[in-house]
Design a protein that fits this description.
The protein has 399 residues and is of the alpha/beta class. The protein is built from 15 helices and 16 strands. It binds pyridoxal-5'-phosphate (PLP).
Length: 399
């Protein structure tokens, strides 16, 4: 009895979180929060006015008066929260109107709203319960977590490489049972590289092997044809089985969606645990997204964004930087972590906020600064950004 007591008192089954944080600090890996005054293209951070080239609020709609008004009207007319899961009492006309609008943009029978893009991916992949998932090596964390939760065999193929996918499909098909369910999963736009998945080739391979396709349009939704994503740009709406996306980036609010057939949506309503056991999206988020989507469809904002993207890409390129990708996200490749960190610091001194992306987020030797232009950056802001990159790059001998 006595010895039992002694043993218990020397045990420590707790969690040493301090030690973890200290280790992160020591290796320069600790992340911290940095509050800003608002989420516009020019805002106060550390009580200084700064130009922000870091937000996914690509169309600048999170501070647009029309979108703000829609959010407050939804709060007044419907409520600030949904009060329950959609399957209980949290289903409103407003939710259905946004789902109809999104279905029109995505050219599918239906869409279903989730509380976030993260919840949409995790819940949908797990609900489909595939036997084998073929996944791009750089897919978003929410896709990776969906694969884990589904407990499927996950086969990772080389980034944006349809030939690599073809090899993996062929080799896995050697010992496949006939009734196995296969899912090919990819982001459409990769936010750290600004590149685009080879969707047409992926669809051809999926058709050849009878696999399903799930694509994540988080960074593309709202920015292409009629407010759609890459799937719409490439005319592949009928070839993709499941389109996932978020309302939290260009659509300026919060929430996720899944677009697909009527049957898919009915199945998810029954089977996706992150839908069934989570409160319906808050009405202000639904109202804001609905108006943001209308503005995105209208086109003028999209045109401003792409104009800013072109000016920045050409400007950075012409002073000697290497800019990756082919989309609205502009990753400026530096290579060495120290160079990227120092450039980030110099840019901040000139009131430009564009975050450094370094290992482990990206592979060793590919540290970069991720520049995310917004439709609402003025010509002066774009000029200021370019001249800060030029001055700092020359000073540091990077260009
Ligand atoms: C941001 C993002 C998500 C998550 O969306 P949230 O609505 O922020 O949860 C999912 N997939 C990709 C590719 C993303 O970039």
């Amino acid at each position: 009895m006595d010895s039992d007591t002694t043993e218990t008192s020397t045990r420590d089954h707790g969690f040493d979180l301090e030690a973890d944080l200290e280790t992160r600090e020591r290796y320069g890996l600790r992340r911290t929060l940095e509050p800003a005054a608002d989420v516009s293209a020019r805002t106060r951070i550390d009580s200084r006015e700064r130009y922000v080239f870091a937000a996914n609020n690509y169309l600048g709609l999170a501070t647009d008066p029309r979108v703000q008004r829609a959010a407050s009207e939804a709060a007044r007319a419907v409520g600030t929260g949904s009060g329950a899961s959609r399957l209980i009492t949290g289903d409103t006309e407003l939710h259905r109107e946004l789902e109809d609008d999104l279905a029109a943009v995505k050219h599918t029978d239906r869409t279903l709203l989730f509380s976030s893009g993260y919840a949409a991916n995790v819940g949908t992949i797990a609900a489909l319960d595939p036997d084998v998932i073929f996944s791009d090596e750089l897919n978003h964390a929410s896709i990776i977590d969906g694969c884990r939760l589904a407990a499927a065999e996950t086969v990772v193929y080389d980034h944006c490489d349809a030939a690599s996918l073809a090899v993996k499909l062929r080799s896995r098909s050697m010992d496949a049972a006939d009734d196995e369910r296969w899912l090919i999963v990819t982001d459409t736009v990769f936010s750290m590289d600004g590149d685009v998945a080879p969707l047409a080739a992926i669809c051809d391979l999926a058709a050849q092997y009878g696999a399903w396709t799930l694509v994540d349009e988080a960074h593309a939704t709202g920015l292409y044809e009629d407010g759609g994503g890459i799937v719409q740009r490439d005319g592949l709406s009928d070839s993709i089985d499941v389109q996932v996306g978020t309302l939290s980036k260009a659509l300026a609010s919060q929430g996720g969606y899944v677009a697909g057939s009527d049957t898919l949506v009915e199945y998810l309503v029954n089977e996706a645990r992150s839908f069934v056991f989570s409160t319906g999206l808050a009405p202000p988020a639904v109202g804001a997204s609905r108006t943001a989507l209308q503005i995105a469809r209208d086109g003028a904002r999209r045109a401003s964004l792409w104009e800013n993207v072109e000016t920045l890409r050409e400007g950075l390129d012409s002073v000697g930087y290497r800019v990756l990708g082919e989309t609205n996200v502009l990753p400026v490749l530096l290579g060495e972590r120290v160079d990227a960190i120092e450039l980030d610091r110099r840019l901040r001194e000139q009131d430009i906020v564009a975050p450094v992306i370094r290992p482990p987020t990206v592979p060793d030797g590919t540290s970069r600064i991720r520049v995310a232009p917004m439709a609402t950056h003025s010509d002066a802001a774009i000029e200021r950004c370019l001249s800060a990159f030029e001055t700092a790059g020359r000073d540091l001998g990077l260009i």
